[in-house]
Amino acid sequence: MTRPASERLVMKFGGTSMGDLERIRRAARIVAAEAASGKKVAVVVSAMAGKTNELVAWTDGAGRPGAGVALSDDEYDVVVASGEQVTSGLLALTLRNMGLNARSWMGWQIPILTDDAHGRARIEDVPGEVLGAAMDRGEIAVVPGFQGVTRDGRITTLGRGGSDTSAVAVAAALECACDIYTDVDGVYTTDPRIESRARRLEKVSYEEMLEMASLGAKVLQTRSVELAMAKQVPVRVLSSFIEPDADGVMPDKGGTLICDEEEIVEKRIVSGVTMSRDEARITLLGLGDRVDAPADVFTRLADANVNVDMIVQSQSRTAGTVNLTFTTGRRDAQRAAELMRAAQGEIGFEEIRVDEDVAKVSVVGVGMRSHAGVAQTMFKALADKGVKFQAISTSEIKISVLIDAAYAELAVRALHSAYGLENV
Asked: Which of 1, 97, 168, 224 has the fewest CB atoms inside 10 Å of its own CB, making it the most exposed?
């Protein structure tokens, strides 16, 4: 008779937690403590910190394809997926050496099925029956994150931060919770390195975490939060630097629970302040004031897979024209600018300007839905510090402003204080 799925648990350890053999041994002790408490455990692991960058550099060193030769993205994935294979084998070996029943499971053995978009694949299905049965028999399953397999058997990778998504997908397949161990002990009201009075949040809603992740918080990968929300997987963010006691029992682990909004009794107006420096502002000056001009611009950007965030259109000094400003990630900025310059005659604008010396600062909170005055507090706090904003974007639970990068940390501290987040 199989055990109920509720006794299962997926644990995920990031690259810092897998950084060397001593840290792998620490992770093994944490896994052993959970197994000793009666949990049926699967562990998803990242590559050692820095290893993926090294593997990517090796693929770059293999050279560029010659004229008329297609990019070998599938072979790129074979190389860069190997980092997680190493750590999954090492963790399984360490657990075995401790006398535990452990085994590594590659992405193709489960299988974690993805589409064929090599380097940025999306998970389509994770059949959990075989893996779950092995866990219910008492086996600790160690799974490499970041990798999957197409339906025709080719290895794929999920893009940077993909191990978080792997862990949530496996948890969804096993119908259980997911504990993500990282180098911080939870989700904070803002980055403690910027504001020393930042406070750890006990619970954060999926919606809030999704906004925070997309706006610059580095704790969880955006796609993993999307998947957790869609599949209603409870996710806890925990520190991997805790240790079981002499009896192998874990102390109170604290951390932050990412859960449904209904599980949070007292909803804060604002839960966090985030900052992203990975921003660039692009302005098309003297764009013809045609009704279809913005559609022409953003269709070209979408076709080139350039993600656009903030958009502002204003009147130009030249009659019959407007200025169109939008933001994108720095990595996409030059590509977007080149695309616009190449089509300047067809689009019809006078000049393009690119500014990478900007930052996006945001406030996030589900309480915004039912409270007035959130925007007023934000803009007054920034005005009191002399911080000017260049663009604004909003959703139901967040407000973001684009500002000069030099004022980013000042703005974060001012907003953290304005919303009283040091008292959370």
From this structure: 1
